[in-house]
Every structure is written in structure tokens, then in C-alpha cells.
Design goal:
Blueprint (H helix, E strand, L loop, with lengths): L5 E6 L5 H14 L4 E5 L5 H11 L8 H25 L3 E5 L2 H11 L4 H12 L6 E6 L2 H11 L10 H17 L4 E5 L4 H17 L2
Parallel strand pairs: 1-3, 1-4, 2-3, 4-5
Helix pairs in contact: 1-8, 2-3, 3-5, 4-7
Bound molecules: thymidine-5'-phosphate (TMP).
Length: about 210
């Protein structure tokens, strides 16, 4: 669809997104790929303001539909201002989360209908979908231990264990339904082993250009 490749990184809470993202960046730099990294919700000044609203623990009254629509409002801005222009210019875009997080959190976690999300996805994105999605996966209990050990939590991290179990299930469902673009990385082993798994995936993506 565009000359640049669109790669999204997804993960259950505490799956090690920051560490692995740094590894992915180093790998692409070494291969001489022209890329940008960004994140959702956020990625542009306006979308980052929406992110603040979404993650603020004080917003306990935020209803599920408003949460869903704000995710897509931020995404529309992000796509228009940053992602699509970069892909059009031939740059790769590496996004720390994208629409699969909406299926997982608002669909799986909050229980909003998959169909509603699919309608918004089509409206906001047209036919644009990630070329590849790397899912960093860890069992819920282990991931939450890592989150707690970090200290400060956001509005989502305040949720119950069952919420995160539904999110993990939804991600695994997305991976089963989209095997052509999904790569699951098990982040339980020692970091060197996780990097080896990532190496295999990244080599494949770089060689496929
Ligand atoms: P982060 O902690 O990975 O930066 O993501 C922020 C939070 O936003 C995380 O708890 C997942 C959540 N989220 C959604 O609920 N729906 C979405 O569509 C996205 C992109 C993130």
C-alpha cells in the first residue's frame, strides 16, 4: 500500500515492551533501515494530550464508549499527521501499540463489541493495516509482578487481574486470526533468548523488503 513498512509492537502488561523496543531500534539501525518510532495512544502533540486524558487515574468516570472513541480520535490524528506521511515517504514506522490494543483492551478487557471496533477501524484507517505485528507475550501473573515492581501505575494498570487475562486472550485470538502478520515472542526466558527470537523475526522482515 505504501513504500514504507508499518510494524506494530503489542504486549500484555509487563511483557518488556521498552527493553525489546530498544533492541528492535538498534537492530534496524544496524541494518541501515530508515525508520521512525512512535506510540499509541499518542505520537503527535494533540494525540499525546488525548493520551494524558486516557491514562489519568483521576478520570475514574470515563465511560467505556468515550474511552474507545478517544483511542480512535488519537489514532486519526496520529495517522494523518505522522504515520501516513512517513510511510508515503518510504520510511518504516515502528509503533508501540496500535489498533490491536483497542481490540485487546476495549474489546477483550472492557467487553465492547468487536464489530463496533471493526467499524471504527475501517472508518479511521481505510484499508491500512500493519504489515507485521510483534506480540510480546507473558502470563498475566508474571507480567503484573513486573508492573508492580515498577511502582507508579496508570488508569489501566489499576484494573483487576481478570481484566488483564481477557486482554491476553484477545491478543492470542488476534494472533490466531491474523497468522500472516503476527509474530509471538515469549518474554519469559532470559533476555538473550528473547533477543534471539526477535532476531529471527526482524531478519525475516528486513529480508522481505
Ligand atoms: P503503554 O502503557 O503501552 O504506553 O499504553 C498505554 C495504555 O493504553 C496501556 O495500558 C494500553 C492502553 N491502550 C488501550 O487501552 N487501547 C488502545 O487502543 C491503545 C493503543 C492503548
Amino acid at each position: 500500500m505504501y513504500p514504507g513498512k508499518f510494524i506494530t509492537i503489542e504486549g500484555t502488561e509487563g511483557a518488556g515492551k521498552s527493553t525489546n523496543l530498544n533492541y528492535i531500534k538498534d537492530f534496524l539501525q544496524q541494518k541501515g533501515i530508515d525508520f521512525i518510532t512512535t506510540r499509541e495512544p499518542g505520537g503527535t502533540p494533540i494525540a499525546e494530550k488525548i493520551r494524558e486524558l486516557l491514562l489519568d487515574k483521576a478520570n475514574t468516570a470515563l465511560c467505556d464508549d468515550a474511552e474507545l472513541l478517544l483511542m480512535f480520535a488519537a489514532r486519526a490524528q496520529h495517522l494523518n499527521e505522522l504515520i501516513i506521511p512517513a510511510l508515503q515517504s518510504g520510511q518504516w514506522v515502528i509503533s508501540d501499540r496500535f489498533t490491536d490494543a483497542t481490540y485487546a483492551y476495549q474489546g477483550g478487557g472492557r467487553g465492547l463489541p468487536w464489530e463496533k471496533i471493526a467499524q471504527l477501524e475501517q472508518w479511521v484507517q481505510g484499508d491500512l493495516r500493519p504489515d507485521a505485528t510483534i506480540l510480546l507475550d507473558i502470563p498475566v501473573e508474571q507480567g503484573m509482578e513486573r508492573v508492580r515492581s515498577r511502582g507508579e501505575t496508570d488508569r489501566f494498570e489499576e484494573e483487576q487481574m481478570s481484566f488483564f487475562s481477557r486482554i491476553r486472550e484477545a491478543y492470542l485470538r488476534l494472533a490466531r486470526e491474523n497468522p500472516q502478520r503476527y509474530y509471538i515472542i515469549d518474554t519469559r526466558p532470559a533476555i538473550e533468548e528473547v533477543y534471539q527470537q526477535l532476531d529471527r523475526v526482524l531478519k525475516k522482515l528486513v529480508d522481505n523488503v
